[in-house]
């Protein structure tokens, strides 16, 4: 059974940094797409960054140059390094996994498994 567990959220001031982690359990496929999504209160779920099994990455425009997605296959962990945080980055952040995916889009319905989320709050 695949399980994703996020950690690393918290409260920071604008301009600060956080690194989110997503530990992956029970995952064995060699072809996949992994992504980070976020949802702010009253707003829709938004794709933030993704990385596939080939290492190709994709970012939503508003985080380009500030966020970096990476993976450590040996530790079965996905990361999201977030720098220069802004109040508008405040949201619940989720990691997600798509079996056999190539990260062609941030379509949430393509992802098979989701973590429980970790809260990020950025104050001005």
Protein model, in words:
With 124 residues, the protein is mainly β. 0% of the residues lie in helices and 52% in strands. It has strands at residues 3-7, 10-13, 18-25, 32-39, 46-52, 57-59, 67-72, 77-82, 91-99, 113-114, 118-123. Strands 2, 4, 5, 6, 9, 10 and 11 form a seven-stranded mixed sheet that branches. The mean pLDDT is 95.
Main sheet properties: 7 strands, mixed
Report the portion of residues in β strands: over 45%
Q: Give a count of the beta strands, DSSP E runs of length 2 or more.
A: 11
Structural class: mainly beta
Q: Can you write the helix and strand succession as a string? A: EEEEEEEEEEE
Summarize it.
The protein contains no helices and 11 strands.
